[in-house]
Design a protein that fits this description.
It is a single chain. This protein has a three-stranded antiparallel β-sheet with strand order 3-2-5. A three-stranded antiparallel β-sheet has the order 6-7-8. The protein has a two-stranded antiparallel sheet with strand order 1-4. The protein has four domains: 87 residues, no CATH class; 101 residues, 2-Layer Sandwich (Tetrahydropterin Synthase, Chain A), CATH 3.30.479.30; 36 residues; 44 residues, no CATH class. It has ten helices and eight strands. The radius of gyration is 45 Å and the shape is elongated. Helix content is 56%, strand content 22%.
Length: 296
């Protein structure tokens, strides 16, 4: 299933054997030594069979060897021998972590909203024997199972869940795909949803809804603030009603804060100015502290 490069060590051995065989034939012809013809033939046969017998699997590879059509074993990593014309390496399995991109276009959610979802699957082969014997092409099958599982998950989930809870959707996809591919010797490591695309008209509607919700929250907060301010004013009014001197001091402070800016001109009635003199304030304070006389 996986492409393989040429077996360089066996090719070098074959080249050396053919060169030695050629040397043996040359020596036999020059010195009339018939035994060297036999040696040359043996060396040539070894050179011919070396590429077919010697195989090397990389650290991350496993070779599935069949002997006369039956499973002989899983070979690798490293150097191993097979019997030429009897043993066949039918599949080279890569056991590194693999990635598969898949998507679902115009899939309807549970609330009938068409969506386009892109996702990526991380997986690896943990059992080369099952991956080679239980299914024809495990790579293609994994992609199809992932796409089918994604469509099933979309159809059973509302749009709000897909947009707000991707981690849970990733976990559901991982469990579902892992359950379906476990019999092929494949382990699903993780699934990540990369993008959830919805129609433009629905995006505008959701944007307006979110804006309305924010305006609602802002008005609620503003109303609560107005209520708190009104309560504070009521408390201040109650305090000032029982202490006229404090009210006069507060009025003077307001006038001062207003007139301290340059260029500001404030017109104050004469009666109000007379009521704010020191004697008036002391009299008001004394009157506030004198208990009322009982009625005769």
């Amino acid at each position: 299933m996986n492409p393989r490069s040429s077996n360089s060590p066996s090719g070098i051995i074959a080249f050396v054997m053919f060169a030695a065989a050629a040397g043996a034939f040359y020596w036999a012809s020059m010195h009339d030594a018939p035994p060297f013809y036999g040696l040359g033939a043996v060396l040539a046969l070894i050179g011919l069979l070396a590429p077919l017998s010697l195989q090397i699997a990389n650290q991350w590879e496993r070779a599935v060897v069949l002997r006369l059509g039956r499973l002989q074993g899983i070979r690798g990593p490293g150097l191993f021998l097979i019997v030429p014309f009897i043993d066949v390496v039918t599949v080279w399995i890569d056991q590194r972590i693999q990635t598969t991109e898949f998507n679902a276009e115009q899939a309807l959610t549970r609330d009938t909203v068409p969506t386009n979802i892109d996702a990526i699957l991380f997986w690896k082969v943990h059992d080369p024997e099952r991956a080679a014997l239980e299914i024809t092409d495990y790579r293609q099958a994994i992609g199809r199972v992932a796409q089918t599982s994604l469509r099933e998950m979309i159809g059973s989930s509302p749009l709000t869940i897909l947009l707000s809870d991707r981690k849970n959707a990733d976990l559901l996809l991982k469990e579902e795909i892992g359950r379906k591919t476990a019999g092929w010797g494949v382990t699903v490591i993780s699934v990540e949803i990369r993008d959830v695309a919805i129609p433009d008209a629905l995006q505008d509607a959701m944007s307006r809804q979110a804006q309305a919700e924010r305006e609602k929250e802002a008005r609620v907060i503003l109303g609560a603030a107005e209520l708190e301010i009104a309560q504070k004013f009521l408390d201040a009014a109650n305090i000032y009603s029982g202490n006229p001197a404090a009210l006069q001091l507060r009025a003077m402070n307001i006038i001062y804060e207003t007139t301290k800016e340059r260029g500001a001109t404030i017109l104050i009635p004469t009666m109000m100015v007379d009521s704010m003199n020191a004697g008036g304030i002391v009299a008001l304070a004394a009157a506030a502290q004198t208990p009322p006389k009982p009625a005769k």
